[in-house]
Amino acid sequence: MSPSKLRFHRRGEGETLLFLHGFFADRSQWAGLSNTLVEQGFSCTSVDLPGHGEASGFKGGWNELLSQIDDWVGQQSEAVSLIGYSMGSRILRRLLLRAGPALERALLIAPHPGLAPAAARARRLSDDLLAAQFCSQSKSANTDYWERLPVFAGQQRMAAQSLAQQRMMRLGQEPSGLARSLRELGSGSCVEGGLVTRESSIELLYGDRQAVDVGRCERLHKLWPQARKQRFSACGHNLILEAPEAVLERITAGRLGGRRFTR
Q1: Is the pTM of this model over 0.70?
Q2: Between 207 and which of 55, 66, 166, 235 could a Cys-Cys bridge form, CB atoms 3.0 to 4.6 Å apart?
Q3: DSSP string of 3-46, one letter each residue
C-alpha cells in the first residue's frame, strides 16, 4: 500500500455514507454511529485521514487528498452522502468548492468557513509551532494538551466509558503524523470564501455552548444561504460524542424511523 494511498473501509449494504473524522482522531470516531446505521440498512464507509491512524505516514497535500476522495465517490453506483466533523467538515467544505461528482447530501458537523488571508497566515505559524510541540512530546502529553483545549470544555459530564474510548483513540495517534496534518491540512490552509460548485443538499450542524462554533457556522451560512442550519442546544464542539442520537436523526432524516443509538 502506497503511503499516499487512502484506504476506505466499508460495512453494510444500502444507501452509501462516507464519514470524515476530526483532527487527533481516526475512523473509529464514527464506530458507534456506524454500527447503528448499518443495522438500519445503510452502507457506511470510513477512512483514516492524512496524519491519523493507518494514514499517519500519508505523503500528499490537499489536491491528493481531495482527488482520492472524489475518485472513491465517483466509483460508487449511486450518489453518496458525506458526513464530516471538524477537520472532516473542513475537508468536506473544500470538496464542495471544487468540481466533482454530485453528492446526495453533505452534513458538516462543527463547520468552519475558512479564515481571512491575514488570519490564515497567523494560524499557519501557530500550527507550525504546535506541530513542533507534538513532535517533542509523548503521546500522553499530546493527548493531555488536546483534551484541555477550551473548545472541548464541558465534555467532563459525558459517560466515563465514552471519554475513555475517546482518550484511547487519541493515544493511538503518532506525533509525526499529527504534525504533518497540521502543516499540510490545518485550518490555516483554508481561506474563507468560495461558492459551492457541485450538486448537493447541504446541512450545517453545530452546538451552541461554544461561541466560536456558533460564529463559524453563522459565517459559513452567510456564504452558503442555501444550506440548512441545525443548532443543538447546550452542546459543544463534538456532537458525535455529546449528541449522538441527534446526529443520527439528522443523518437518517427522511429515510428511516428512529431506532435508538447504541454503542
Answers
A1: yes
A2: 235
A3: TT---EEEESSSEEEEEE--TT--GGGGHHHHHHHHHTTEEEEE
> Is the residue at 157 inside a domain?
no
- Residue 160 domain-assigned (yes or no): no
Q: How many domains does the chain have?
A: 1
- Which positions ≥6 away from 19 have C-beta within 8 Å? 27, 30, 33, 34, 44, 45, 46, 47, 82, 83, 84, 88
Q: Give the integer Cα–Cα distance in Å for 17 and 154.
A: 29
Residue 215 per-residue DSSP state: H
Within a domain: 241 = yes
CB 230 within 8 A of CB 204: yes
How would you classify the pairing of strands 8-11 and 15-20? unpaired
Identify the CATH number of the domain in which residue 74 sits: 3.40.50.1820
C-alpha cell at 164: 475513555
Q: How far is CA 24 from the centre of its chain?
A: 10
- Angle CA(109)–CA(114)–CA(120) in degrees, nearest 5? 135
pLDDT tens digits, residue range 36-77? 999 999 999 999 999 999 999 998 899 999 999 999 999 999
Q: The domain containing residue 33 runs over which residues?
A: 8-114+190-252
Q: Is residue 238 part of a domain?
A: yes
